[in-house]
Amino acid sequence: MAEESAVELTPEEAARLASVENSADALSALIDDLSSSSRRTRQLAARVVNLLAQREPEMLVPFIEQLVDALYRPEAQTRWEVLDALTLLAPGNAKECGAAYEGAESALFDEISAPLRLSAFRFLTVWGATERRRSEKVWPIVDEAIQCYHGDLEYRDMLALLFAFAHGQIAGSVAAELAGRLQFDAENGKGSYLRVRSREIYDALVKRFKLDNPQKRVRAKKSNADDEDEE
């Protein structure tokens, strides 16, 4: 059982969660509600999907395709709740969750919703850390996001996610460019958390990958892995 967030549920959320945990028909109805014409219905369904992923993620594995489809709903909350659910599924179902890449990329650069951007960043770093080729696929847009959101409030959380990413199954080339990207903040970052966290990631990468003078990514060019089918 996955660890559940310490969040107080509304009576409606609690009742819906209890029903889907005990009924296959209720679970199917919940997934169908992700495609409802009602925005409120979609948001509630997505919220319960996220809660279920925290408690019983294996129950959602047969519905990954429908979760990926829900990333194209117009409202931000449905998308971030589903991205958070897919993040919990990704380590054990990375191949299937790869279909969420395009939806996550779009969410990562949403111009309005910071929670949506952060959820997309979380999914991409978790999924990318499952295998070296996947890390190469996500790295160009993760690197772009680091530059875009460096001064934003959510960047503190992004650094924590980068710390986990740096300890995942990432390619040496990705590790070198990530270290190069964070080197300035590791040495000169404004604010103790920014500097200390960047230094922790930088030092871990240098030690683990035996890096010598790592350089940040200099070209905004998609990886060849973007054009390859997910294995």
Automatic annotation (TrEMBL):
InterPro entries cross-referenced by the UniProt entry: ARM-like, ARM-type_fold
Domain of life: Bacteria
Name under which the protein is recorded: HEAT repeat protein
Matches recorded under SUPFAM superfamilies: ARM repeat
